[in-house]
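Tokens as discussed.
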């Protein structure tokens, strides 16, 4: 199953989704999640939140939206070709290295589910360049556009 098909299947039945953009825009491709949240903005069935490097500070805000689905978007070391997108299971997060935030995403998801039960998705992207002061690489910028369009299609 392709990434697009897996995402569409995971979003079946979504009545409201919160897109959580994680990352540090000053560190090249680590800004991927924030760029997706900014590009998507809000749609009829989606609210985008740019949490940068402190997703733990937004747990109550995310839960307060009472979403059916929450989608965390972040750069992650996937040992794949730069620009590779992968839909990750929350249970697999211990095996995946994310780059900037200090508190593990699995703990953040656990706290979120204590406040509000919802389906949680994690979209990871293999970065190419994490140099301080560099922008998004061409590979990652094209994935920002691709993922944003997929989310719009599934959450309009």
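Sequence:
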């Amino acid at each position: 199953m392709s990434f697009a098909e897996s995402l569409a299947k995971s979003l079946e039945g979504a009545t409201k989704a919160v897109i959580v953009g994680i990352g540090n825009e000053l560190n090249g491709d680590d800004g991927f999640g924030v760029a997706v949240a900014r590009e998507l903005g809000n749609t009829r069935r989606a609210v985008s939140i740019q949490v940068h490097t402190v997703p733990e500070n937004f747990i109550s805000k995310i839960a307060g939206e009472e979403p059916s689905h929450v989608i965390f978007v972040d750069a992650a070391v996937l040992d794949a070709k730069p620009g590779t997108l992968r839909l990750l299971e929350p249970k697999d997060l211990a095996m995946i290295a994310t780059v900037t935030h200090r508190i593990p995403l699995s703990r953040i998801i656990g706290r979120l589910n204590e406040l509000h039960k919802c389906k949680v998705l994690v979209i990871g992207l293999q970065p190419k360049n994490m140099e301080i002061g560099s922008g998004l690489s061409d590979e990652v910028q094209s994935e920002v556009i691709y993922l944003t369009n997929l989310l719009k299609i599934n959450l309009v």
